[in-house]
Write a structure and sequence with these properties.
Two copies of one chain form a homodimer. By secondary structure, the first copy, chain A, is of the alpha+beta class. Chain A has nine helices and twelve strands. In chain A, a hairpin with a 2-residue loop joins strand 11 and strand 12. Chain A is elongated. In chain A, 37% of the residues are buried. At the A-B interface, strand 5, helix 3 and helix 5 of A face helix 3, helix 5 and helix 9 of B. Chain B binds a DNA duplex through helix 8.
DNA sequence: CGGTGCGTTGACATTTCTCAACTGTTGTGG
DNA sequence: CCACAACAGTTGAGAAATGTCAACGCACCG
């Protein structure tokens, strides 16, 4: 066990430390540096539906999901709830808000019971960032990754046809199973997914139905099976909704 | 370091150096550090329409616009040309590609005659970034700013109604003149703006006509005059008499 | 002049939204 | 255990927004 516990309040428990270490852009970090980061961290538990922070609140920390899931959402001026992001275990969020915006731009809410987070307090972390130049590349990498995600999203939303947006989104989801029957788990409720893709739940439902009728998709609740990946890719790229491509 | 130790790129001329210094996130930098950054820089001139880099090319530099304008665009799978960004003098671009993606994700093209750029070579800049911890905050700040822009854009594109998207975009444009007759210059051609907002040129044209007919907008070529800012804001926010919740 | 390309307008087709009704599930309380 | 409400999801019909196609004006440029 690391015997350095008197400089800081009790560090987070080992499994959480592991989560922190596994963070994509913290992987290369020197163990001793990582420990100093952990010194800014504490554990947070949330019940399902509990609000972690609200839009407009001063950004004082960033977070890493250890278990459960966090949904970042906001209300559009049109009155829709928009899921900006759904964060899975092992991913971090709100770094950019901490580093620059000053305020959280979205609501953050736990979507599962007993969601566990690592909270990294902003002030000591920023101090550490100034003192330790080795930390900067990790932060820069993390920001670039977030940027790449957003660019993806902009491109997706620029597609005029609802079917293209959905198909493209599906292509970006983690899939499992054999190539001729790819399984995709929807991490969101269908109505949330619809809002995410700037369409109504009805339109989403009809798209899924049509693709089932066309025989290249199966829907079982919140799990989809793609029977023809080429067809999906074509739908993502073509403005022709009719298929026959 | 190798053979070409003395192949120091010629320092850029004073006005360009000034442009570099004025870069938002380089402002606080120590003069001597800024000079080292300038040591990675060289001047670039482009004719109107000339391609600076193409999508997919390896990202070896980032750029600052000194005069003229650069358009970042790409072709959507649907075949539309999509202007991802229009860069005005004093702004930088392609930092994120350099820092992380490895490849440029868009085409970059000069939209004005004799567009002048500062090109900062990636390799020496990255080396400088590693050596000089004081540079990292500037880079992080710049990335965060870009991130904020993209979030704006995602929110804009999430608006379902074309009128909302246009109104919201207009609200974000620099305006001049008295509040009761705000002048907004369109930096893009109308067809480019339409693509940027995920609509057709016809729809854009009809929206502008309708707002003129409603009496709160004037259009003179590529210059708009907003006679009723509140009306514009209302159009951006709740053009839907709706309550989908 | 005559071509070329942007922008506008009109007529029409298509997509998507809206509203409403209906299903199925889940959780609650009797 | 059942009735019930509450809610996600589906489906249908009609309305509204937007895309498509075509024609035209207009500026620019050789």
């Amino acid at each position: 066990m690391p015997a350095s516990a008197h400089r800081r309040p009790p560090l987070i428990a080992p499994p959480l430390l592991e989560t922190l270490r596994r963070l994509p852009h913290f992987q290369g970090l020197a163990p001793e540096l990582l420990e100093r980061v952990a010194g800014c961290a504490r554990e947070r538990h949330l019940a399902r539906g509990e609000l972690l922070f609200a839009r407009g609140g001063a950004a004082r920390s960033f977070f890493v999901v250890h278990a459960g899931a966090i949904r970042l959402s906001r209300l559009s001026p049109e009155g829709r709830e928009h899921v900006v992001h759904q964060i899975a275990p092992g991913s971090s969020f709100a770094e950019a808000a901490l580093l620059s915006f000053g305020r959280y731009p979205v609501d953050a809410q736990a979507t599962e019971e007993d969601t566990v987070l690592v909270e990294i307090a902003g002030e000591p972390f920023l101090r550490l960032l100034r003192e330790e130049e080795r930390l900067a590349p990790a932060v820069i990498g993390s920001l670039c990754a977030r940027l790449a995600q957003l660019v993806e999203r902009v491109e997706e939303l620029s597609l005029v046809q609802a079917g293209s947006r959905l198909a493209r989104w599906l292509l970006r989801q983690p899939a499992s199973g054999p190539p001729e029957r790819l399984a995709i788990d929807l991490a969101l409720q269908k109505r949330e997914l619809a809002a995410h893709l700037a369409m109504t739940p009805e339109t989403l439902s009809r798209l899924l139905r049509r693709w089932q009728d066309e025989g290249w998709l199966e829907v079982e609740g919140s799990r989809l099976f793609v029977l023809d990946a080429a067809r999906l890719a074509a739908t993502a790229g073509d403005s022709q909704p009719d298929g026959t491509a």
